[in-house]
From TrEMBL:
Name of the protein this chain belongs to: DNA repair protein Rad52/59/22
Keyword DNA damage annotated: yes
Keywords: DNA damage, DNA recombination, DNA repair
Record-linked InterPro entries: Rad52_fam, Rad52_Rad59_Rad22, Rad52_Rad59_Rad22_sf
Species whose genome carries this gene: Jimgerdemannia flammicorona
Length: 153
């Protein structure tokens, strides 16, 4: 996969994590299946943490979401993958913490469901595969997926 679709962030103990931003995951789905051939449905599983300290205003918010991503072939056959994502945030502005946590959980669920469609949509994010652009070039995968979506006669 091209590094154009990935970003990094620093986590605990200074470890660097590789990830695909949600806008890139959506772009990869559009390139792989065509924007008119896929859709998603996101639902809240639970708001497992929703606390605000009345004295300090400090809040803790956590959401778990489920996303179902559906792809429709040209013959009308639909297949799907679904997965669960979550997010947890803390801070002093209850409204923005709640909104950002909800959006992060929805994005996480969407990206996890999309990744189940295979390498072209970000299922492999290690250096070995990122540097292997010859075997995992998105345009080659796009050609393969378009062939897959055509109806066999």
């Amino acid at each position: 996969m091209s590094t154009k679709y990935t970003s990094t962030r620093t986590g605990n103990a200074g470890k660097t994590f590789l990830y695909i931003p949600v806008r890139c995951a959506i772009e990869l789905m559009n390139m792989t299946f065509g924007h008119e051939n896929w859709s998603n449905e996101i639902n809240t599983i639970e708001n497992y943490m929703d606390e605000e300290d009345p004295d300090t205003g400090y809040c803790r918010i956590g959401y778990r979401m489920k996303c179902k991503v559906m792809v429709t072939k040209s013959d009308g056959t639909t297949f799907f993958h679904e997965n669960v994502g979550g997010a947890y945030n803390t801070g002093y502005d209850y409204g923005s913490i709640t909104t950002n946590t909800y959006k992060a959980a929805a994005s996480d669920a969407l990206k996890r469901a999309i990744s189940l469609f295979g390498i072209a949509t970000g299922s492999m994010l290690d250096d070995e595969h990122l540097n292997d652009t010859d075997n995992h070039d998105i345009t080659k995968k796009r050609k393969h997926e378009k062939t897959f979506l055509k109806t066999k006669k």
